[in-house]
């Protein structure tokens, strides 16, 4: 997976360089062939990541091992064969060789995202079928024993292969060909891949934070359903201007506008589940990537997608860099970061690393985060100028008119692509040599001993309330609506006469605000996460006999308010990361509700004994 | 596991999805059903110069044009959208351009291609008798010739064959006929704003702009001098295909060409002298150099005079 990622990323860097000077490597590695590699290897490395992740979590979910093992090895070899075959066939475009047999392009077919020819297509279909088989083979035989996560993965892997069948389709006419090409692209990234994403995140969060299986199941079912309910007909946001009837403008705008719903639902559940955890997790780095994935999915796929999806906004941005802006954050952000996060956990488990020094991992995270954000911002900036020069002024001399309008954006693109490249190198190095940063028992203890019990914590380390979370999301969506307004404003008469001020201002505020708030939100969320993890770590390492104990048993004469005061005072007397034991011969539910009413979510309530004679809980102070 | 009310909600969700699948299928089928009012163009029905648009579509895919250009707005955003280019620039300009994509064609070359089409009775230029008629029909061709004629383009010099070029033109003719529901939106920016922007952007690009290319007959005396020959060669569009530095654009380089012994595609060899060069200009398909494609270089018979050819030959001699 990492090698394919490196290949894809290097081709991306090459593209950014060729953007700066189109004569570079002209004739040897033309832009279009480099781009074909960039797109195809993006799919290959992410799909490899999916395969790895599902082979990792499948046995845990299905309680059966992956088998037969030889088939897994065969699949891995098949992926390499496809990769090498791509290196042979994609460059044939330099000479115009597609390997036509009738209307079937055997070798390569020059369709965006589906550049590989029919042979590649069949090899991939075989690969996906094997993958679907291996996955289903790990699950219980009786469907009745399946929970929502089994179903989510099953629909996902079978969908992967089924949707791919449409890639083997050729038409004599462009409109029909585009119609079915989008079946593959859309029903993959905006359906099947999202279904896999939801299920994988659901599973990982459930494993990390011990979320209730029923709750995760609920989230997976409705997340997946929302994806299909919005995305099935939402596919037609690709059918506005390609020669299909105009009625798609209505259906496509309406349904695709709903597509962000499951993505908001997803990050909401990441937020809820993270708060649910009662024990510290062993792999904070993996959570960074998982959180990043949910965040970029909502911002890149959801918000940026929304800004271009309504037909009368789309008519301006169609065929410009604005599309590339959305595409990069959505694809790398949602899916790339997810499989990287899963890889961190997978490699940790496979190499038997209890905990590792994650400084390098977090550095890689922030470099990739900033890198992709910068790339996306550059595309957005260049794209806005491109719309003005190309669509409003009607200039179409690429070298002399359009490219100069985008020069600054191109320079930023190359700089951020370079930053992203460095981040990737660090990431790959970190993952491949993770065992070198394994922490010994002694080092783990030393690390834990360095944690403190402050009485107060910084405002950005505080736990995030639902209200605050909602405010961040509203701010992000407000920026998204500003961008939408800016793009829509290209349709205003004054703008079409030649004055770009309104769209430029709205785009500047909208995009700028969106990227700034995304960054601040990520910092805020992860800081609170780190603080909470520290607190949980502290609470976890104290044995029960080392902390205070309050027993309310047989205190029947004392009024409830006095007992409540006792509990509260004890709570207030301890520092962050400290805990005490509360026990009683009566149900402690009233105390739980009382604490929640008074304190909000800033405590953990770990049930030790749950009646019917005696109740005992551990109450800890967290952020 | 799941409570009954939740079970019911889930069942409803799945039924709604089922309903959507039906709607989706119906709308999908309707998208391609043709009626009196709604017809779609078909590649097999659109022809140009003996090739059909289906062949052209295969060329378009074979060279992976979509990963630099966009078509119906889809593809890479590295080169212009090609959906309506035929409608804007017409077949003669496209033929002239595609023959040597690394440079924009001069008026002479567009004219030659147009004359070829008229001579062959090509249906696509029916009703067009001369270049002026052509420019009236395709004003963007005139715009390009005036602004860009002879200037380098950023597109690589893809080595299309004649059939591939004809096929591509047929394909672009087909895409021009696709109903794109009003995309791209009509342009009605104020001319002053556009002109101002053009000036600013061209200066910013730092790229050479078109300097006037001398007319076909060179200087007043029509002398056979190398500088004169260079002017004529530029005006005639020769430099779009022939380099002076040894590299291969589309045709053989003119560097160190005169006096050389070269191999021809039929196995024979010939010395590059005046007679050979003049024959190449007037009847280019007679003697094709080995490794190069026939049918690409147009004939300049009736376009260049004897003096013009002498001047060009002097120029070729001077390129060491």
Q: How many structural domains does the protein architecture of chain B include?
A: 2
Helix content of chain A: 55-70%
Strand order of the largest sheet of chain B: 1-2
Structural class from helices and strands of chain A? Answer: mainly alpha
**Radius of gyration of chain A over alpha carbons?**
27 Å
Q: Average the pLDDT over all residues of chain B and give the rounded result.
A: 92
Instruction: Please tally the β strands of chain B and state the result.
Output: 6
What's the overall geometry of chain B? elongated
Envelope shape of chain A: globular
The number of helical elements of chain A comes to 21
Number of strands of chain A: 6
Could you name the CATH topology of the largest domain in chain B? Cytochrome Bc1 Complex, Chain D, domain 2
CATH class of the largest domain in chain B equals Mainly Alpha
Main sheet makeup of chain B: 2 strands, antiparallel
Q: How do the SSEs of chain A run, as a string of H and E?
A: HHHEEHHHHHHHHHHHHHHHHEHEHEE
What separation lies between the terminal Cα atoms of chain B?
87 Å
Main sheet summary of chain A: 4 strands, mixed
- Distance between the terminal alpha carbons of chain A, to the nearest Å? 37 Å
Secondary structure class of chain B reads: mainly alpha
State the helical fraction of chain B: 40-55%
Strand neighbour order, sheet with most strands of chain A:
3-4-6-5
What do you see in this structure?
The complex is a heterodimer of chains A (623) and B (320). Chain A is mainly α. Among the domains of chain A are: 279-541, no CATH class; 544-621, TusA-like domain (Translation Initiation Factor IF3, 2-Layer Sandwich), CATH 3.30.110.40. Chain A is 69% helix and 5% strand. Chain A has helices spanning 2-20, 31-62, 69-89, 118-137, 148-164, 174-209, 213-234, 247-256, 260-276, 284-309, 311-317, 321-350, 359-392, 398-405, 407-432, 441-449, 466-488, 493-496, 501-541, 560-573, 589-599, and strands spanning 100-101, 104-105, 548-551, 579-584, 603-610, 615-621. The longest helix of chain A is centred in the C-terminal third of the chain and has 41 residues, at 501-541. Chain A is globular and about 90 Å long. The two termini of chain A are 37 Å apart. Chain B folds into 2 domains: 43-176, Cytochrome Bc1 Complex, Chain D, domain 2 (Orthogonal Bundle), CATH 1.10.760; 226-318, Cytochrome c-like domain (Cytochrome Bc1 Complex, Chain D, domain 2, Orthogonal Bundle). Classes of the chains: A mainly alpha (623), B mainly alpha (320). Chains A and B meet through helix 2, helix 6, helix 7, helix 8 and helix 12 of A and helix 1, helix 2, strand 3, strand 4 and helix 7 of B.
């Amino acid at each position: 997976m990492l090698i394919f990622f490196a290949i894809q990323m290097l081709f991306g860097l090459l593209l950014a360089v060729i953007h700066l000077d189109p004569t570079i490597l002209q004739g040897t590695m033309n832009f279009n062939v480099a781009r074909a590699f960039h797109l195809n290897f993006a799919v290959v490395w992410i799909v490899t990541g999916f395969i790895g992740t599902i082979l990792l979590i499948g046995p845990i979910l299905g309680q059966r091992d992956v088998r037969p093992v030889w088939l897994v090895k065969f699949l891995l070899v098949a992926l390499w064969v496809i990769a090498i075959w791509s290196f042979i066939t994609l460059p044939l475009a330099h000479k115009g060789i597609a390997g036509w047999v009738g209307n079937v392009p055997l070798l390569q077919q020059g369709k965006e995202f589906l550049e590989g020819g029919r042979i590649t297509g069949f090899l991939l279909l075989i690969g996906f079928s094997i993958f679907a088989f291996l996955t289903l083979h790990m699950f219980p035989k009786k469907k009745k024993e399946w929970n929502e996560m089994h179903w989510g993965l099953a629909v996902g892997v079978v969908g992967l292969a089924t949707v791919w069948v449409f890639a083997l389709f050729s038409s004599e006419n462009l409109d029909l060909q585009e119609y079915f090409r989008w079946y593959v692209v859309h029903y993959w990234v905006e359906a099947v891949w999202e279904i896999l994403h939801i299920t994988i995140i659901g599973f990982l969060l459930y494993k990390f934070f011990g979320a209730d299986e029923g709750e995760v199941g609920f989230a997976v079912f409705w997340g997946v359903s929302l994806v299909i309910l919005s995305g099935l007909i939402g596919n037609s946001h690709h059918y506005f201007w390609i020669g299909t009837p105009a009625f798609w403008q209505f259906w496509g705008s309406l349904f695709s506008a709903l597509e962000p719903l499951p993505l908001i639902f997803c990050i909401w559940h990441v937020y809820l589940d993270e708060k649910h955890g009662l024990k510290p997790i062993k792999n904070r780095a993996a959570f960074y990537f998982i959180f990043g994935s949910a965040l970029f999915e909502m911002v890149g796929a959801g918000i940026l997608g929304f800004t271009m999806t309504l037909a009368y906004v789309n008519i301006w941005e169609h065929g410009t860099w604005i599309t590339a802006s959305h595409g990069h954050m959505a694809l790398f952000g949602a899916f790339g970061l997810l499989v990287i996060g899963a890889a961190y956990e997978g490699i940790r488990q496979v190499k038997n690393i209890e905990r590792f020094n994650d400084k390098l991992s977090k550095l890689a995270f922030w470099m990739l985060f900033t890198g992709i954000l910068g790339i996306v911002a550059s595309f957005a900036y260049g794209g806005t100028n491109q719309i003005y020069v190309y669509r409003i002024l009607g200039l179409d001399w690429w070298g002399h008119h359009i490219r100069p309008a985008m020069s600054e954006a191109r320079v930023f693109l190359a700089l951020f692509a370079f930053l992203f490249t460095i981040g990737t190198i660090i990431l790959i190095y970190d993952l491949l040599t993770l065992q070198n940063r394994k922490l010994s028992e002694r080092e783990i203890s030393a690390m834990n001993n360095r944690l403190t019990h402050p009485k107060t914590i910084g405002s950005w380390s505080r736990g995030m309330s639902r209200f605050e979370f909602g405010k961040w999301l509203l701010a992000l969506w407000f920026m998204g609506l500003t961008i939408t307004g800016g793009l829509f404003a290209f349709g205003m008469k004054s703008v079409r006469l030649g004055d770009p001020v309104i769209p430029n201002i709205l785009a500047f505020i909208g995009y700028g605000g969106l990227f700034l708030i995304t960054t601040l939100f990520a910092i805020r969320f992860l800081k609170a996460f780190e603080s909470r993890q520290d607190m949980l770590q502290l609470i976890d390492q104290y044995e029960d006999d080392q902390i205070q104990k309050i027993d309310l048993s047989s205190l029947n004469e004392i009024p409830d308010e006095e007992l409540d005061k006792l509990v509260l005072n004890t709570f207030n007397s301890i520092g962050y990361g400290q805990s005490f034991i509360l026990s009683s011969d009566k149900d402690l539910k009233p105390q739980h509700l009382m604490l929640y009413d008074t304190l909000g979510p800033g405590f953990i309530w770990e049930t030790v004994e749950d009646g019917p004679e005696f109740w005992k809980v551990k109450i800890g102070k967290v952020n | 596991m799941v409570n009954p009310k939740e079970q019911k909600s889930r069942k409803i969700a799945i039924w709604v999805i089922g309903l959507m699948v039906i709607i989706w299928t119906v709308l999908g089928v309707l998208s391609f059903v043709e009626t009196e009012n709604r017809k779609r163009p078909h590649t097999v029905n659109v022809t140009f110069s003996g090739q059909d648009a289906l062949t052209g579509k295969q060329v378009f895919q074979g060279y992976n044009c979509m990963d630099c250009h966009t078509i119906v707005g889809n593809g890479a955003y590295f080169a212009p959208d090609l959906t309506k280019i035929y409608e804007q620039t017409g077949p003669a300009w496209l033929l002239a351009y595609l023959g040597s994509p690394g440079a924009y064609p001069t008026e002479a070359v567009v004219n030659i291609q147009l004359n070829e089409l008229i001579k062959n009775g090509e249906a696509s230029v029916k009703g067009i008798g001369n270049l002026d008629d052509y420019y009236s029909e395709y004003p963007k061709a005139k715009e390009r010739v005036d602004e860009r004629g002879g200037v380098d383009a950023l597109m690589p010099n893809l080595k299309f064959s004649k059939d591939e070029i004809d096929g591509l033109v047929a394909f672009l003719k087909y895409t021009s006929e696709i109903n794109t529901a009003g995309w791209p939106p009509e342009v009605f920016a104020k001319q002053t704003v556009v002109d101002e922007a053009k000036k600013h952007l061209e200066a910013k690009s730092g790229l050479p702009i078109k300097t006037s290319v001398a007319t076909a007959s060179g200087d007043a005396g029509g002398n056979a001098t190398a500088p004169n020959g260079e002017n004529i060669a530029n005006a005639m569009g020769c430099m779009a295909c022939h380099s002076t530095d040894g590299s291969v654009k589309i045709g053989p380089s003119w560097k160190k060409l005169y006096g050389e012994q070269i191999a021809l595609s039929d196995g024979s060899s010939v010395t590059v002298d005046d007679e050979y060069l003049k024959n190449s200009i007037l009847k280019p398909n007679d003697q094709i150099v080995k490794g190069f494609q026939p049918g690409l270089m147009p004939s300049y018979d009736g376009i260049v005079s004897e003096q013009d050819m002498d001047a060009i030959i002097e120029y070729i001699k001077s390129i060491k």
